[in-house]
Amino acid sequence: MSGEVMDNCILMNMDENTEQSSKNAEDNFFDEIIGHIEDILLEDEFQALQKKFLDEYWDVFEPIEENKLIYTNIFNEYTIAVENYIVNYLQRIIPHFNLNTFLQHLTDKRNHLEGEVFEVLSTFTDFVAFKEMFLDYRAVKEGKVQDLSSGISITSFKSNTSSNDPPR
Question: In whole numbers, what is the pLDDT of the chain averaged over residues?
Fold first, then answer.
């Protein structure tokens, strides 16, 4: 192999390694943000914010295919409130957090994401998921579906013990 061809191969390999390293860093950063959002979703303050909207507007949403103009207004109000809450929280923890970059990663990975955190995130990016959340809440309020949330206990995986303590 000539020196020039070998140099080109080395540069191409370095570019691939740099690109892969950058991709891994992006994935790790995305995963870190998702972890913080999971923490947010467990907070009483966030749950109170979401419940406030549900309690205030549950009877506005009807289980019909047609959507009323007021649904859009409520969706926009909810989106702004939830987005501001999450962004403010994340910017306190991750000073270089950028919502647009995060939303782009979320969109890029949408087909590969599963779990409750992504369902909640979809309620302020996807109108259909948002409306479904209100219709589910309405069904509970009207007694058409049993509310099982009182039997659910959510606990954090974060340990309050020091790393020297044995697991229990």
Answer: 78
CA Rg, the chain, in Å?
A: 22
In the numeric block, the tokens 């087909």 are attached to 111
DSSP run (H or E) holding 89: helix 69-93
Q: Chain centroid to CA 44: how far?
A: 16
User: Tokens at residue 12, please?
Assistant: 């191409």
Q: What is the mean pLDDT of residues 38-55?
A: 94
H or E stretch at 50:
helix 44-57
Taking the C-alpha atoms of residue 85 and residue 82, their distance in angstroms, rounded to an integer, is: 5
User: 54 near 114, Cβ under 8 Å?
Assistant: no
Q: Which amino acid is at 15?
A: D
Q: Pull the structure tokens for residue 68.
A: 């009323």
Contact by Cβ (8 Å): 28, 34: no
Cβ proximity of 140 and 51 under 8 Å: no
Is the entire prediction scored with pTM above 0.85?
Answer: no
What average pLDDT does range 21-50 have in this prediction? 86
pLDDT reading at 46 higher than 90? yes
Nearest to 133 by CA among 121, 118, 123, 148: 123
